Amino acid sequence: MSKSVKSRRRFWHYLLRAVLAWFIVTELLVLSLRWVPPVTSAVMIERWIDARLHGDRRYHIDYHWVPWREVSPWAPLAMVAGEDQTFPSNWGFDFGEIKDAIVAADHGARLRGASTITQQTAKNLFLWDGRSYVRKAIEAYFTVLLTLNLPKQRILTIYMNIAELGNGVFGVDAASHVNFGKPPARLTPREAALLAATLPNPHIFHANRPSPYVLRRAAWIEQQMRQLGGPMYLPR
């Protein structure tokens, strides 16, 4: 057997082992989230590093995990109403929304996001900012893992705990205290809608100082919450 053949076999052998190791590690990591809250997220780490690189020593992460039962049902409902209304029934991807976004882009519109809550959870937990095919492929991989390993309610619990809702403010607990001076269990439908309305850009939009855009979006989210049937729409 020639050296070149041996080298190719060795290469494929090590590549297969690397792929298998990657799958086992990521599978165990995602599976553990069924019981263990994430200590941090890729977005939190990236924001902290970016602040330090720009000399902002005052920046800190405000993140406190709260279980589902300690959050007003209006908070997760507002996020579903504003971000992904097919969440209770989709399999991690909203193919109809993806198709509509592509069609709109083909007609000259700016390519808009079509990410589900599960995709956003995967992105926030494991990935860096930016757009590339490699990043989207990894996001899709983790989206599938989350969908296969975690119940819907757990995915939504993770999302509302790690979502960026202000400068250094992550999750519904920190956002509730910063914006309204109360724990998330006491959020009203209006307050929950205001928090969800800031999600497109929490560095610009503020729930406690809402711009006209945030007020309009919050009103729309409240309307959607009613049309969805209230908290009974949420996954159990």
Automatic annotation (TrEMBL):
- Report the GO terms under cellular component: peptidoglycan-based cell wall; plasma membrane
| Bilayer topology annotation | Single-pass membrane protein
What EC class does the entry list?
transferase
Q: What's its catalytic activity?
A: [GlcNAc-(1->4)-Mur2Ac(oyl-L-Ala-gamma-D-Glu-L-Lys-D-Ala-D-Ala)](n)-di-trans,octa-cis-undecaprenyl diphosphate + beta-D-GlcNAc-(1->4)-Mur2Ac(oyl-L-Ala-gamma-D-Glu-L-Lys-D-Ala-D-Ala)-di-trans,octa-cis-undecaprenyl diphosphate = [GlcNAc-(1->4)-Mur2Ac(oyl-L-Ala-gamma-D-Glu-L-Lys-D-Ala-D-Ala)](n+1)-di-trans,octa-cis-undecaprenyl diphosphate + di-trans,octa-cis-undecaprenyl diphosphate + H(+)
Which BP terms does GO give this entry? cell wall organization; peptidoglycan biosynthetic process; regulation of cell shape
E.C. designation(s)? 2.4.99.28
- Spans through the membrane: 12-36
Its pathway is:
Cell wall biogenesis; peptidoglycan biosynthesis
InterPro entries per UniProt:
Glyco_trans_51, Lysozyme-like_dom_sf, PBP_transglycosylase, Pep_trsgly
Query: Where in the sequence is the signal peptide annotated?
Result: none
GO molecular function, a single term:
peptidoglycan glycosyltransferase activity
The UniProt entry, under Pfam families, shows: Transgly
| Localization terms from the record | Cell inner membrane
Instruction: Please give the NCBIfam families that the UniProt record associates with this protein.
Output: mono_pep_trsgly (TIGR02070)
| Assigned protein family | Belongs to the glycosyltransferase 51 family.
Q: What does this protein do?
A: Peptidoglycan polymerase that catalyzes glycan chain elongation from lipid-linked precursors.
User: Which HAMAP family would you find in this protein's record?
Assistant: PGT_MtgA
What protein is this chain from? Answer: Biosynthetic peptidoglycan transglycosylase
Organism of this sequence: Metallibacterium scheffleri
